[in-house]
Amino acid sequence: MTSPRSASIVGLLFFCARFAAANTTPSLLPLPTSVRVEEAELVLSGRWDVRRDGCDGPVLDRAFSRFEADYERSTGIVAAAGQDVAVSIRCSNPAAAINATQDESYALKISLDGIRIDAAGSAGVLRALATLRQLVSLRSGRPTLPLALIGDAPRFACGASCSTPRVTFSRSGPSSDRLMPWSASN
Length: 186
Fold this sequence. Notes:
Layout lengths: L3 H19 L11 E10 L4 E6 L4 H18 L9 E7 L14 E6 L2 E6 L2 H14 L8 E9 L15 E3 L2 E3 L11
Parallel strand pairs: 2-3, 3-5
Antiparallel strand pairs: 1-6, 4-5, 4-6, 7-8
Helix pairs in contact: 2-3
């Protein structure tokens, strides 16, 4: 005969396992403002067929080359002849150089037809590629992407950083002089 305590533990474990299986939202950092993921997947079996509209320049050429290299390194698969994956990238406000005031917003759509990135500028394309890189999965034994609709934009116009390891406390009060020579900003 089972005790009520063991029955409740088994019930709790079943509930947790059921909840974990139902949660199909991928882990993404930083967390986009909106994420909608479907059960189906886009199988990545060919080369990347990239088409850009308003997003030209060496910055994005290098960014996509890095994406391809990261894809090959993380999956161990070199893109070869097969069913090419269509990647459509569109910038509504292209800028010559990425700067601190450039709009980083983007919309990323992964469908069975391919991948579509709509960004305000080059910085948005870079952020979308970073998200796309995190979505590549080998769970089914081959590289796939979940069908998804993701939108993101910075939540604040500017950011701040608090570097707590740079400040030390002694009896005489806080001092950052002892650690300054090893600081990353020096």
